């Protein structure tokens, strides 16, 4: 299987490189409903609490590309912050798995 990396954030490349090490790390960091996550520092959205800890509820409802830019709808997650009642949508590039260490 050939892995593709087309993100500038992980490997600094804007082109696709087969078997890129960053792509394999990215594949391992997939998010799924039920995962406890933290929104990365430097990211802000209206209604987000200071603690930044949330649980992934599901992939966000289908949104048209005009509201997402060039993002793949599969990469948008609906998350619920601890202590909140209204879920928010975030792209996976702004999420990290929550760990206590």
Report on the structure:
This protein has helices spanning 8-11, 21-28, 65-68; strands spanning 36-39, 53-59, 76-81, 88-91, 95-97. The chain is an alpha+beta fold and 101 residues long. The chain folds into two domains: 1-29, no CATH class; 31-97, Roll (SH3 type barrels). It has a five-stranded antiparallel beta sheet with strand order 4-3-2-1-5, with no helix packed on it. β3 (76-81) and β4 form a beta hairpin. It is globular, with a radius of gyration of 14 Å. It starts with 7 loop residues before the first helix and ends with a strand.
Q: How many discrete domains?
A: 2
- Low-confidence parts: 1-15
Biggest sheet, spatial arrangement of strands: 4-3-2-1-5
Radius of gyration: 14 Å
The first-level CATH class name of the largest domain: Mainly Beta
Look at the structure and give the mean pLDDT.
Answer: 74
CATH topology annotation of the largest domain: SH3 type barrels
Compute the number of strand runs. 5
Series of H and E elements: HHEEHEEE
The N- and C-terminal alpha carbons lie at a distance of: 33 Å
Which secondary-structure class do the elements indicate? alpha+beta
**Tell me, what's the shape?**
globular
The helix tally amounts to: 3
Please report which band the strand proportion falls in: under 5%, 5-15%, 15-25%, 25-35%, 35-45% or over 45%: 15-25%
